[in-house]
TrEMBL record:
InterPro entries: Aldolase_TIM, FAD-bd, FAD/NAD-bd_sf, OxRdtase_FMN_N, YqjM-like. It comes from Streptomyces brevispora. This is Bifunctional salicylyl-CoA 5-hydroxylase/oxidoreductase. Residues 19-353 form the FAD-binding domain. Residues 417-751 form the NADH:flavin oxidoreductase/NADH oxidase N-terminal domain. Residues 761-789 are annotated as: Disordered.
Amino acid sequence: MAAPAAPRPDLPSTGPHRIAVIGGGPGGLYAAALLKRLGPEREITLWERNAPDDTFGFGVVLSDETLGGIEHADPTVHRALQKEFVRWDDIDIVHRGHTQTSGGHGFAALGRRRLLEILHERCASLGVRLRFRTEAPPAAELAASYDLVIAADGVHSLTRTAHADSFGPCLTTHRCRYIWLAADFALDAFRFETAETPYGVMQLHGYPFSRPSPGHHPSTGQAGPPNELGASTVIVEMREEVWHAAGFDTCDPAESTRHCARIFAAALGGRPLRSNNSSWLTFSTVVNAHWSHGNTVLIGDAAHTAHFSIGSGTKLAVEDALALAACIEEQPSLPEALAAYESERRPVVESTQRAAAASLRWFEELGTYVDQPPRQFAFNLLTRSRRVTHDNLRLRDAGFAAAVEEEFGCPPGTPPMFTPLRLRGLELRNRVVVSPMDMYSATDGVPGDFHLVHLGARALGGAGLVMTEMVCVSPEGRITPGCTGLYTSAQATAWTRIADFVHTGSPGTAIGVQLGHSGRKGSTKLMWDGIDQPLDEGNWPLVAASPIPYAQGVNQVPHTLDRAGLDAVREQFADAAHRADTCGFDLLELHCAHGYLLSGFLSPLTNHRTDRYGGSLENRLRFPLEVFDAVRERWPDDRPMTVRISATDWARGGTTAEEAVEIARAFVAHGADAIDVSTGQVVPVERPEYGRSYQTPYADRIRNTLCVPVIAVGAISSWDDVNSLLLAGRADLCALARPHLYDPHWTLHAAAEQGYPGQGAPWPLPYRAGSRTPPAGRTDAPKPRLTLG
């Protein structure tokens, strides 16, 4: 995070001289103070419609990173803050009468009112004009008479609304209600407490923001005024339907406050809660396509919001102010400064919003986690945003991490990813899967030497399960001419050679086959010649649930499968399963994802049938389940079957997360041993929410709703991610694709980097000499012994 340079009293400041600030929250005040300090001759006016001592919310949490930026930019403000902070390290997670404590986290908080007082005093001392109880003129009017207008007018920004065409705002509301309250005593730690009530699950988030006076301790239960016992922020949150069922929708604010205190009486030691004009809110995620318009710029909640459960609202606003001031000092013109500000801040904000979205969703789905074991529940909560990971938590609190590992079942010295997993008669020696990856390198559907080397190398690389690419059940079911198949004896012979090598060359590694049919996405060029583009010549006819081309005007219109066609395809899958058995595959996966034939039946965007195979979800499931049953009948009973699904189409009107759970439930009821949870690739107009482990929340939801094993996929790239997902109970297996293209020995290297030499990832005998990192050049040159003046 950039911090503006200290002012030079001998030089005039650069950039805008007349500055208007709309909004007197921390972001607006701090921006005004910084710009005035950097340019004492500047004329800066700030409008705030509330009184100076009006504030909503209670405590504010700031990170060490943010405080470091403040210290460099304005030591005066930093010193004032340091005097006020409450600091603590622990997080307490209370669930079903059990308290799990994790330390080493490092928090600093103070009262929001006191923060504003410090910033008011700093602005006044620098000469910023503060106009309280005064509505700011419209931004357009200010922009005509000021060089710069800073809109820090919050989540309900009038500036953003007035210029929506320029800023391009998108506001998304969510599924929980919450209320900000306070307790007049200081909690010992950051506290998360779950209450399972007759109405549903409720959650308390609490943290101290004011110290007890000397001689008092918050755990004594003594009554006393706030200045003696300190104070804590208490946020109560629950799903909308729980809020209605509990009657909060008809409570006045005072009764809501009393009701929350009764529900969480144990956490509060029987003490009351208080409000400050508090009301029940629904969180809105704010995203803007652009943060500036002419000489008007958005900062803080006006530009972006991040859910309170990761405590980033004030942090982001203050960091915005720091970056904006720095860019104004560094850039030669205001347009360049505003562009640099957005370029610097947007990636940071988007990363924070992704983490906040993961945390928000976790609390929305809290009810699916309440049956987890106590330590796993706590670990799951701590790692919900994916910013805290297993390895990070081991550094913060090794004892807590070890207790979680023991509860999970890790043998001593064994990372979670190297614990075995049994599916029917197959025991996988570790939890790493080489995800199916189309290689487009077959001839007439026959896998060749390339496939032997490709899959053989990854088997030697230590993964517990190596999956083939999608193996097609008919010539017409191929995606491209380079796709493999299992519809001829020559193909079966070639696959037998590959399966035999995996079993003999890397004993203990399992190999699975994924069976599929391209449906409307077939008859296209090899990926590197034009993904999803039809062949220039030699096209074959396509079949699908409905006559809808993948890309209108680009791909051919598929034929609708009639009764005879449905029966023929079902038998093709069953025949391929029989051949897979004779090849020696250990596991079979049915591909019902990514817009291919069976996926095309499941999605309402691609299935417009009016017969018994279309319409309701039950009907859309009918044919995929018929295929599953036919395959299961031909596949040996002691060998597991999995099903890959797209848990969302990432498109309006497509498969929902709720439907994905029901799809998984149906396959499990028919005998699926695990669900491989992917997303998207069903329609070309999809809008995925990319990010690290971005698909895992869908696997998480299915696993913890249905208590069924799941395979998680999607931008899982580090062994730390794998360990974290497993320990949190979000997945049972993790499938990685691109990491295994980058490094065929990814699993063995993960073991070496974690110092694990066990049988969960044994090095092949010919490779054992490479199990240690090769030595590099010398870096331990002798240090100087003497310093001569």
